Amino acid sequence: MAGLAKTGMEWLQDPLSWLFVASVVFVEFSKLFGAFNIGDFFPWLSWADPQGINVRLRAARAALDEFIDKIIDEHMARGKSPDDVDADMVDDMLAFLPEAKPKKAAGDGGDELQSTLRLTRDNIKAIIMDVMFGGTETVASAIEWAMAEMMHSPDDLRRLQKELADTVGFDRNVDESDLDKLPFLKCVIKETLRLHPPIPLLLHETAEDCVVGGYAVPRASRVMINVFAIGRDAKAWKDPDTFRPSRFVAGEGEAAGVDFKGGCFEFLPFGSGRRSCPGMALGLYALELAVAQLAHGFSWALPDGMKPSELDMSDIFGLTAPRATRLYAVPTPRLTCPLVADVNVDEHNKWISMLPACMLRLPLSI
Ligand code: HEM
Fold it and tell me: What InterPro entries has UniProt attached to this entry (predicted)?
């Protein structure tokens, strides 16, 4: 959540706004993006919109538009300059919008900036939407799956926790500078993205006639790439359905050289080529840091003495192929320091130790 402040969406930290957007708008968009739309398969039927999907899409879009307009208006009213220490991503973009002049820097380099690049209000809205959609559900879904897979495979959780204890120690939390020293963490993340790509189906359109695998594909055909199925293809992966991060470990696993940057076609969680994910670095950073902090900060147990083998690992249809049942897990503090700075460690641990009573629901508590 801390990252939201710099993106200009700290208003999402207001519980009521967040509840509305998360429970109404995001959920509705997620359902609609993942819905089976008859018009996609029989385009001549799409004008009739037999399932009412287009009507719902327009309504969800209007609700989201209203929210994003509010963010932009609030930022224009406060008139921060990109140089202000508390300026965020929206303030940065407003510097390129002709009708928004920062109060403090009036007459200053604003015109100069706008002669290099001009953005319209719609451009800024589109970028905010990209960050909101690209960077929230994808990362949240992957964090929940990573934790669920490790609860289901406790040896892997223990191996990751040992790596964290050896590298970071128990007297502080993991931070960004540790991430490059945690090779097993990277393997856990890769294995999670292989089995549970947050965007399981990529939708593209062919730009020209082509032949793929002996099939002639005409220009302007809609192409769906099933990244989920590719990641579990038995021809490309040994034990394809097993969560086994060690397959990626250098010098140990058979898939050590396989990466997700778009060149290994058996592993495409971020897509490939010009339309691949532009937020890969940010998404990975958020994902790695969250999983590392959860694994390092707490010992984890399943509720009511549930065995790992009893954990439901099924998924359901939807934009991010989410878990069919939410993950519930009980944390116990592991560190000798508080997770938040400037807090008394005893008070902090007392507070955390109350969590098992109310059961931590992972995605909402992150
Ligand atoms: C674990 C995290 C993430 C995963 C797995 C992921 C995956 C993907 C995938 C598979 C695509 C579609 C590629 C294609 O169609 O070939 C995509 C597109 C996109 N992603 Fe991400 N993404 C993640 C995080 C982010 C973040 C953090 C942002 C921005 C803050 C972001 C912004 C976007 C945008 C704007 C597109 C559309 C690109 C285009 O249409 O050209 N993503 N992402």
Answer: CYP450_84A (IPR053062), Cyt_P450 (IPR001128), Cyt_P450_CS (IPR017972), Cyt_P450_E_grp-I (IPR002401), Cyt_P450_sf (IPR036396)
Among the listed residues 26, 23, 21, 53, the one whose alpha carbon sits nearest the alpha carbon of residue 38? 53
d(CA 102, CA 202): 40
The closest of 301, 356, 295, 326 to 145, measured between CA atoms, is 326
What single letter denotes the amino acid at residue 302? Answer: L
Give the pair of three-digit tokens for residue 40.
């996609």
State whether the beta carbon of 282 lies less than 6 angstroms from ligand 1: yes
Report whether residue 135 contacts ligand 1, using a CB cutoff of 6 Å.
yes
* 141 close to 320: Cβ distance less than 8 angstroms: yes
> Residue 174: what are its φ and ψ, rounded to 5°?
-70, 140
Q: Binding-site residues for heme, please?
A: 277
Choose which residue among 136, 138, 260 to substitute to test ligand 1 binding: the one with the highest number of ligand atoms within 8 A of its C-beta.
138
> Residue 9: its pLDDT value, please?
53
3-state secondary structure of 238: coil
- The response to whether residue 278 sits with its C-beta less than 6 Å from ligand 1 reads yes
Ligand 1 close to Cβ of residue 223 (< 6 A) = no
Match 């439901």 to its residue by tokens: 312
Cβ burial, residue 145 (10 Å; 0-12/13-18/19+): buried
Q: Spell out the alpha helix ranges (H) of the chain.
A: 4-7, 15-20, 27-34, 38-41, 53-78, 89-94, 110-116, 121-135, 137-152, 154-168, 183-195, 227-231, 280-297, 345-353, 355-358, 362-365
| DSSP run (H or E) holding 326 | none
* pTM of the full structure: 0.83
In the structure, what pLDDT confidence band is assigned to residue 37 with cuts at 50, 70 and 90? confident
Residue 68 Cβ inside 6 Å of ligand 1? The answer reads no
358: tokens are: 């109310």
pLDDT at 100 over 90: no
Mutate to test the pocket of ligand 1, among 129, 195, 227, 270 (most ligand atoms within 8 A of CB): 270
Calculate how far, in angstroms, residue 278's C-alpha sits from the geometric centre of ligand 1: 6
pLDDT digits (tens, 9 = 90+) for 304-313: 999 999 999 9
